[in-house]
């Protein structure tokens, strides 16, 4: 089963949240609708600006832990390398 690492924000260069899931569409939808309480709901983080697909969930968890240790500037560079305009990627992954 594949795993996904993703980064949410509220605006360009805003608050960043790094997460992991086995179902990116479902999980980002939960964040966007405020279905679960927590950091993303508190800070209104609903814009998907980056994600990676990994072969397994354990590999995705390993990558998530790595990204969470990164400096903020490194995360911004990662986002801007793949998504320079900080577009919301969610509409493109919803079937």
Give an overview of the whole structure.
The protein is α+β, with helices and mostly antiparallel strands and 95 residues long. Helices cover 44% and strands 22% of the residues. The protein has a three-stranded antiparallel beta sheet with strand order 2-1-3, sandwiched between helices. β1 (3-9) and β2 form a beta hairpin. The model has no long low-confidence stretch (mean pLDDT 96).
Descriptive key words:
22% strand; alpha+beta; three-stranded antiparallel beta sheet; single chain; 95 residues; globular; GIY-YIG endonuclease
Q: Tell me the count of domains.
A: 1
CATH level-4 homologous superfamily: GIY-YIG endonuclease
Please estimate the helix content: 40-55%
The CATH topology turns out to be GIY-YIG endonuclease
Shape: globular
Rg from alpha-carbon coordinates: 12 Å
Structural class: alpha+beta
Order of helices and strands: EEHHEHHH
Give the helix tally: 5
CATH class: Alpha Beta
Strand order of the largest sheet: 2-1-3
List the helices and strands and how they pair.
Layout: E1 3-9, E2 16-21, H1 24-33, H2 39-42, E3 47-54, H3 57-69, H4 72-82, H5 90-93
Summarize the structure.
With 95 residues, the chain is an alpha+beta fold. 44% of the residues lie in helices and 22% in strands. The protein has helices at residues 24-33, 39-42, 57-69, 72-82, 90-93; strands at residues 3-9, 16-21, 47-54.
């Amino acid at each position: 089963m594949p795993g996904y690492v993703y980064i949410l924000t509220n605006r360009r260069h805003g608050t960043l949240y790094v997460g992991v899931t086995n179902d990116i569409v479902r999980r980002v939808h939960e964040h966007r609708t405020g279905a679960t309480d927590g950091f993303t709901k508190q800070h209104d983080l609903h814009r998907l600006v980056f994600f990676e697909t990994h072969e397994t969930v354990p590999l995705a968890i390993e990558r998530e832990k790595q990204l969470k240790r990164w400096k903020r500037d490194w995360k911004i560079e990662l986002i801007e390398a793949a998504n320079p305009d900080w577009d919301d990627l969610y509409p493109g992954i919803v079937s």
